[in-house]
What we know:
This protein is an all-alpha fold. It has 20 helices and 2 strands. It has helices at 24-43, 49-56, 60-88, 90-109, 114-142, 146-177, 182-185, 187-201, 215-236, 244-266, 280-310, 315-321, 323-362, 372-400, 406-436, 448-454, 458-468, 470-505, 520-527, 581-585; strands at residues 2-5, 573-576. Strands 1-2 form a two-stranded antiparallel ribbon. 54% of the residues are buried. It comes from Streptomyces roseoviridis. The chain crosses the membrane at residues 25-49, 61-81, 93-112, 118-139, 151-173, 179-201, 213-230, 242-261, 281-302, 322-341, 348-367, 373-394, 483-506.
Amino acid sequence: MARTITAGTRPRPLGRRTDAGANRWVVLVVLCVSLLLVALDATVLHVAVPSLTEDLRPSSTALLWIVDAYPLICAALLILFGTLGDRVGRRRVLLLGYVLFGVASAVAALATVPEVLIGARALLGVGGAMIMPATLSILRAVFPDRRERATAIGIWTAVAAVGAATGPVLGGFLVEHYWWGSVFLINIPLMALILPLGRWLLPESRGGGDGPWDVLGALMAAAGVLGAVLGVKRLGAGDPLLALPTAGPLLAGAALLVLFVRRQKRRAHPLIDMSLFARPAFTTSVGCIVLAMLALVGLQLIAVQYLQLVLGLTPLETGLRLLPLTFAAMAAGATGSYTLRRLGPRRMVGWGFVLTASAVLLLVLMGQHDRPLLLTVGFVLLGFGLQTTLFSAYESMLSEAPPESAGGAAAIGETSYQLGAGMGIAFLGSVMNAAYGPGVSGVPGVPDSAARAAANSLGEAYKVAEQLGGTAGAALRDTARHAFVNGLHVTLFVSAGLLLLGALMATRLPRVMDCPPVPREDLDDERSPRGERGGDGGPGVDGERGRDGDPRIAGAGAAGRELPAAGRGKDTARVPATRGPAERAASARGGH
């Protein structure tokens, strides 16, 4: 449905830089490098855990927090900083995130006690929460044309996949040749380079909210997400659902999130426009992101254990085996815009889910022995299918959100990603444990206490088998390997079922990719040099009025505005009705 917008609607000033249209592809490079650092840091530490444990000697609880502090804090603060960027400026929040990320990386690399490392990882999470939604909302701002934006989002999602997949490879290389702290030091020179580039090249943009920022609501959202993710992670670690450390955070987090939603519906100036969830395409896209990550992140962790513990590969060799997945994801991102225009969101997300499910079912053929060709084909299909799904879901979600709500929408998407990943680890980890545990019981010559310890994980079973030695130890080792592979097959079937459920969910997405034309005035504004007036006497960066007295905001196109310049007589342009509450309430009027 379209709405006629006339000169009576005045957009919000956007900031001092207005040449983002000419430099938008350079801006995309800066944003992608920012995202690459955050994605790398999410996985680069995994292969350094053994070396770190030997050096710092953390307790089991401290080690858990060293690994989890970063994703927990990052997930909890995404909504807070995403909506704050809409109010105070997305570029400002992003640059502050760069500084925090660099400082925290230095502290983490030089940590000598576990407590310092935990604090540094938490500070990294704060920086990551500033960076992640800001990159996506600025991308939404500098690419007002949906065709170009689809290409940009394809590149953006591919970079995220590259960062997550190459983290173990890079981490394995650094740990083998240097020490565990080097996995953090690689951030510092990159941040030293990207901070001045970002300050110079990135445009400033803000949302359309004129009211006060809801501090209490932001804190409620942060605490609610933190509780939910923490409870889910405890489930993934094997804690009982009804245990207080698991049920307490889950119930508290759910209650706070319900109160947050009710508060946003009542406020005149909400942090997040809850009417977004009334749009089927937006809600379905968010659901597809959650389901894709739920089905696959836990599976990825189990696959890494298979490569290392069953096939006996080193961490570096494991990372190299996963590279085909990375290259396939890059290819899907590079061709995503073209595919989306040809297929439309519904078929692209649906067939992406189907292709990923097919890859998962193909991997059921994995067994006790290494089959490199099978793994390569399976990982290629997996990477291409997953990237296709996530790309189209992110693109549909962001295109459904109005430009003034880009930060909030980006935060919702990233929070959905994190929640889906946490639930995937918990759910598929539980499926794996339920299928694996009974398989190691009743081994001849193995005491019941040893069998219970071996049922915790395959790695624990290997330790118990080594302690037992002799025939009983060898029998336990072989039985545990067979039980793990059988459990992996069950987990693959469950994951495939979730992915096919996602294909059914995708039927609620639009059939075609709607690409409304960007008004000529927006394109002219994008091409105007910084500080100059437009060709018809529009203002520079200070937002002054044009010669006929109407408000003119130069460079509005750089923030994704889809409104015509004022003062055009009775000319109007038809654009999608994706304005904020204040703009939707503005009455249309003619010229002078």
